[in-house]
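Reopening this ticket.

The earlier resolution said the output was attached, but the attachment link was broken on my side. Pasting everything inline this time so it's all in one place.
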Amino acid sequence: MKGTITGTGQQIVRNPTAASLMADIRSGDRALRHRAIVQSTLIGTPLIADLGRALGGDPAIVRAAQEALRRVVHHAARPRAASERRTACRELLKLTDPALPRAARVEALSLLGCVGNADVVPGLAGLLKDPDVAEEARMALARLPGSAARRALAAARTGFANEPAGRYPAASSRS
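Inline output:
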C-alpha cells in the first residue's frame, strides 16, 4: 500500500492526517486506534481540538482520544518547543468551554496544570467560579509555577468568603 511502511506487526502510515487519525480513533478496530495514538504526535497541536471533542460517548473512543491528547500535549511541552507549548496551552484553554463534555474540560485542566505557565492563569482563574470545574481549575492553578498562579489562588480565597478554610491553598513554590 502506497504511503505506508510495515513495522513490527502493524502498518505505520508515513504521512497521516488529522482526519485519518481521528477516523482511526473513532473506528472499532483496536489496532487502528493504537496506531493513531502512537502517531498522534506526528500531527501535534492541530489535533487537540478534535481529540477534546472526542472525549464524550463511547468509552473506548474516549480512552483512545484521551491517551492521544496526553501524548500530543506532553510532546508539545518538550524542551526547546516553546511555540508548540504555547499553542497547546491555547488549544487546551479552548477545551474548557462549558459547551464541551465535562470529560474534555477536566482533561484539559489537568493537562494545563502539567504544561501551563503564567499565560494560562487568567483563563484558569475565570474557571474558579464555574461550579462544574472549579476544583479542577484550582488544582491546575496550584500546580503552576510562579507568582501569577499564587495571586490568582489568593484572590479566589478572598472572593469566596463562605468556602471552608484551606480550600484554596497557596500555589506551589516552584518557579
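Reporter confirms the inline version is readable. The longest strand covers residues 4-6. The chain has two domains: 4-116, 118-175.
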